[in-house]
Specification:
With 346 residues, the protein is an alpha/beta fold. Helices cover 34% and strands 16% of the residues. The chain has two domains: 181 residues, Periplasmic binding protein-like II (D-Maltodextrin-Binding Protein, domain 2); 145 residues, D-Maltodextrin-Binding Protein, domain 2 (3-Layer(aba) Sandwich), CATH 3.40.190.
Length: 346
């Protein structure tokens, strides 16, 4: 969900910031769990769960869940890949399918298959990482538009990737650098998947049509997007299929989505392996899965978890997305990024 880009301390929605301060302040920690009474979760900056949920974990297991945050999903994947066998925590959450190959290839993960995975999470299993990563949530990356802005300007909003390069949408899009942004690389993969051999020309056309490219989601959504907290000038932005649930008057373009799934895994060399197993089981349980939409604006993976009221209309799960195997992304990522830089002049 997740995922849904998590630049700096800015979460996916402004409202999540307050929840983060309240819920995380008492449990933030770092380092492995060697006292047997706690388990340390390494995660990205947008991890948010209510304090009542964390308390429920303690009540159910007798363990305290310590949270150590570490930048966005790309940075998180890189950091745990640098310390295989000597982790700074017991488990990791927030590795998405665009960066999953890094910790897998580095040997930073230990196998564990949660019994709860059979109830939905296994549907998102990674073929190249059997038993190493367990899906926790889905947060598809899509173009979002400010419907209210278009109504006010008597203009029809775009509906596809092709529309973004048309003259009538000149200068309206806030896009993301795929080298520094998790949803940024997801959107790049969308263009590669939809445009095939013509994706580089498509990006050149985007630049020629005055699309703005920034380093991360927080800048694009909170500062540049006209419906964001900064009330910027751009009515088109790269965000998530679930974002309209938090931002009234906006819509996701469901034909421009990349399927982003976030995973949890036990870290090789964890001090509290049993605690890590319990934490993954808990992440897949109804206590966590039910609050994922309202806490992190992502979709649960466990079956039969109802979405909040209004989501079916404002933030439906995309029926069709671009999706690529992590090993295919890993094989081509650096070449694609260089081709992208050449196309946009960076």
């Amino acid at each position: 969900m997740r995922s849904r880009e998590h630049a700096g301390i800015v979460a996916r929605t402004a409202g999540a910031l307050l929840a983060a301060a309240v819920a995380m302040g008492a449990v933030a920690g770092c380092g492995g769990s060697d006292d047997g009474r706690s388990v340390t979760l390494l995660t990205h900056d947008s991890f948010e769960l209510p304090s009542s949920v964390l308390d429920a974990f303690t009540k159910a297991t007798g363990l305290t869940l310590k949270i150590a945050k570490s930048g966005d999903a790309g940075k998180l994947a890189s950091q745990i890949s640098l310390t295989p066998g000597s982790p700074k925590g017991d488990l990791v959450y927030g590795i998405d399918n665009t960066f999953a190959s890094r910790p897998v290839e580095a040997g930073a993960l230990a196998p564990y298959t949660s019994p709860a995975a059979a109830n939905g999470a296994a549907d998102y299993a990674l073929a190249g990482a059997p038993g190493l990563l367990t899906a926790v949530n889905r947060g598809d990356v899509c173009l979002n538009v400010d419907s209210a802005w278009y109504d006010a300007h008597n203009q029809a909003p775009p509906t596809s990737l092709d529309d973004l390069v048309k003259p009538e949408y000149k200068g309206q899009a806030a896009l993301l650098d795929p080298a520094t942004s998790s949803p940024g690389i997801s959107f790049l993969l969308t263009t590669i998947g939809q445009k095939r051999g013509g994706w580089e020309a498509y990006w050149r056309d985007l630049v020629a049509n005055d699309a703005t490219i920034v380093s991360g989601w927080a800048i694009a959504y909170n500062q540049l997007f006209s419906a964001g907290t900064g009330h910027g000038s751009k009515p088109i932005v790269v965000s998530y299929a679930s974002s309209p649930a938090a931002t009234p008057g906006t819509a996701a373009l469901l034909e421009t989505c990349y399927r982003q799934v976030e995973y949890a895994g036990v870290l090789k060399g964890a001090a509290n392996v049993e605690g890590a197993h319990k934490a993954i089981d808990f992440l897949l349980g109804p206590t966590v899965q039910k609050v994922l939409p309202t806490s992190m604006y992502v979709y649960p993976v466990t079956r039969d978890i109802p979405l909040p009221d209004g989501w079916a209309t404002r933030a439906p799960i995309p029926e069709w997305t671009v999706n690529m195997p992590p090993e295919y992304i890993a094989k081509n990522r650096e070449a694609w990024l260089q081709q992208w830089r050449d196309a946009v002049g960076r």
